[in-house]
Amino acid sequence: PLVSTGELVTAARESGHGVAAFNVITLEHAEAIAAGAERAGAPAVLQISENAVKFHGGDLTAVAAAATAVARASSASLSLHLDHVESVELLRAAHPAGFSSVMFDASKLTYGDNVKATAEAVRWGHARGIWIEAELGRVGGKGGEAPLDAHAPGVRTDPAEAQSYVAGTGVDALAVAVGSSHAMTDRTAALDHALITALRDAVPVPLVLHGSSGVPDGEIRRAVAAGMVKINVGTALNTAFTGAVRTYLDAHRTTVDPRKYLVPAREAMTGTVAHFLRLMRP
Ligand code: G3H
Ligand code: ZN
Question: pTM for the complete prediction?
């Protein structure tokens, strides 16, 4: 069934679990997330990024309708989340399109401008029952920019700043920079576990880990055990998808029916989804 992101995150936090959120690009991604959630017996978040909306021509209606239908038809509890939204116009489109939550990403702005823009997004969202996540301290690596050095001091979220940020914006969840980086295709990121604990103690809202594709299993389990609640995974699905397509097409040089290679691609993503979901209960 289709549920709200807020209820999934609250339930996970109360039981000391994590809830994984997976990025949807194609219909097969949404189907694989539902199948993986059913296989693992766990809920999940279907998230569509601003970049994915741009890929689909800039209008989120069709992709949101497809993800909603997949969620409704599934026996797993699935929610719909709009991810990394920088455009206020897209933020406002989230409500009619049926999203229960949005990550409003003003992390490229200065601290003061980030607080101002995010507080405005929260006022808008809360008036419509929409749960709002925001980011402080850049995770990096998004949109082709060079991933920031995972150990560079500048890419960590400061706990004292996080505390005033959450108080000043009223956000429902906080995405933090603790050592992960977006778009990693190997799983070598090292998390700053002392910082995760300090951030958990500093803010009253659940923490969100972005760029989880590059974080090893053990590190994810440890982060969840320390109170990291929403775990965002994107690239790992694409690594599985594209790897399966490449293997199939290398072995079948004359194939033209896309279903021939989309079947193994979707199955590979399903396996990846189920794998990450099993890390949510440390
Ligand atoms: O918001 C989405 C996530 O942060 C995904 O990051 O593609 O590196 O797993 P990833
Ligand atoms: Zn992200």
Answer: 0.95
